[in-house]
Write a structure and sequence with these properties.
Blueprint lengths: L1 H7 L7 H9 L9 E8 L19 H14 L3 E9 L2 H7 L12 H9 L4 E7 H5 L1 H9 L3 E3 L2 H4 L10 E7 L7 H24 L5 E8 L6 H11 L2 H4 L1 H25 L6 E5 L2 E7 L2 E8 L2 E6 L1 H4 L12 E2 L3 E11 L2 E15 L4 E13 L2 E6 L5 E3 L3 E8 L7 E2 L9 E11 L11 E3 L6 H25 L22
Parallel strand pairs: 2-5, 2-6, 4-5, 17-20
Antiparallel strand pairs: 1-3, 1-6, 7-8, 8-19, 9-10, 9-19, 11-12, 12-13, 13-14, 14-15, 14-16, 15-18, 17-19
Length: about 500
Amino acid sequence: MAAERRMRMISGRGCVSVFLAVLCTFSVGTCDEQVPLMLWTSEGSGLPSQAVPAAGHIVGVTQLSSYLETALGSAPRNVLLFLQDKMSIEDFTMYGGAFGNKQDSAFPNLEGALLSSPSPLVLPAVAWPASSAVIGQLQDQLDTSPLYMEPETLSQLRLNASTPALLVFRLPYSTRSDLMSAKEVLNGNDEVIGQVMSIMKSQSVPYTAVYTAMRPSRELSPSLSMDMEAGVGGGRSLLQYGDRKRERDRQRERERGEKLVKEKTGVYPPVEFKEGGAGCIMLWADNLTVSVLRGGRWERHDLTSLTFGEGVTPRLQGSLCNQSHSSLVLNYENILGHRSFKLVFAMSQRHYKVSARRWFALDAVEIEYDGQKATFNGSRNVYAPAEYSYRCQSVTNFRYPLLVPRTSKDPANQWRVSFTDFQIQGFNVAGGEFSYASDCAGFFSPGIWMGLLTSLLMLMVLTYGLHMIMQLHTMDRFDDPKGPAIAVPQTD
């Protein structure tokens, strides 16, 4: 019971680092496969009482989903997910002031949040496939799409306590060998956590916060693993069957978690429109989002789950394709208060004499809603050779826009569209697969241009110097110390 109480709550005399360090000793043999997870609420909001796992138990995908579902049943549904690239128990023992040096801790804001929360939940050993799938689990339980934020953006956002929101803050992790560099990065992440909590407190919005990572930051070295096995000695043979069973269970848990991660990360087939039994248009995106401006606020709706995924069959009535034009029409209902809603991708292809080849372009992206139409022009930026597909990491009309409203008075000025990891092909589709992708990223990045210009400047300086050296000539006459001096006449 004492171990369970230590896993459940941090006392006023304790600290997060010592807390997690003690718990890690129960599962030192598999710390390389685990990440910690901490969950707390804002002041005045508590979490329901949950049966915490026994010391040394590894929380899997199913159990973590149960914990989150129980916690969000009564906790605030404005969720702040601080998702670090990598994290392990050792990060808290090394940089958390584990031996009473609290002024040297890299997590003062995190410790303060856990101490001020009425009932924080700390899971020191979560299987990394489960932690990496936490975004998908929260998205399913909140029934909302994740919104990747920065503290500066959060200060401009107005949240509603009655409307669930999933705000994701990605935090880096240093992989360099310099321990102080890693500590500085973790301290910077802690400052981001504190800044976000201060903004939420200033807006008086209750929230639930989760802090975890995608993968463990440290792995158990082979030598340490061999030393541990040697230290067990003859007792290992007595527990050999139990060890094998635990290893099989762990392997099944990893496979189940990896399967869930695959489902949640958007690995699903593209939308394909067929004409006469043959495919002619294909579309894929990791995220399709539309937003409309109402009352000075942007109301957004995620169309991804209605367009892609296993068992999802989008309605493509109105789509067409021929040798010169193609149009993919995605039909929806009850989107942002509109009973009829369509998202149309209109494309065309033609032959260009200058390049001596055919090119296709996304002429327009249209939003048709209740008899009205908003049109975005994309032909200037979204194009590719006719036998290729087009791909871009981000296609929007508001941030680095590739789509622009057709006119200044077009209803498109009241709409926002955002396509993430977008790929489309409107012609020459064969075999149900995308052709070679023409990416929107240019070959020369700003860094490459700066390097080329700097190298060119240095080459010019070197060339000028060599030219000046080559212009030097030696004297054709010299003074002879044993002969008469050279007389230079002063007059003509």
